[in-house]
Write a structure and sequence with these properties.
Oligomer: single chain
Helix content: 25-40%
Strand order of the largest sheet: 1-2-3
Strand content: 15-25%
Radius of gyration: 17 Å
Number of helices: 4
């Protein structure tokens, strides 16, 4: 249902004029129809796609109004640390399987 939820929210936000440009971070071709619909029905709107590492998709690129590829290093450099201690002393940790060399 994630693709349906993303699609629905992008169209609702376009209808409610909540953006001029939406940045979609995905390479999923299931999102081609809503991107096309937004560009056809809201000529002033722009859906820009940022592809995660190894998720580039030509069909998504073809319907976007701009795209980029997020490099693996940029993605790793943008993550929170393995553990974060909140002001109240509670510690939040990433699952061990997410642990990277940070």
């Amino acid at each position: 249902m994630t693709d349906v939820n993303i699609s629905t929210q992008m169209i609702i936000d376009a209808y409610n004029d909540k953006y001029d440009m939406a940045m979609l971070i995905s390479g999923d071709s299931d999102l081609v129809p809503p991107i096309k619909s937004i560009h056809q029905n809201f000529k002033e709107k722009r859906v820009f796609v940022a592809f995660p590492p190894k998720r580039f998709n030509n069909s998504v690129k073809a319907v976007s109004k701009g795209h980029m590829i997020i490099g693996r290093k940029k993605l790793l450099d943008s993550q929170f640390p393995y553990k974060i201690k909140k002001a109240d002393g509670y510690t939040i940790s990433k699952p061990d399987k997410w642990k990277s060399k940070d």
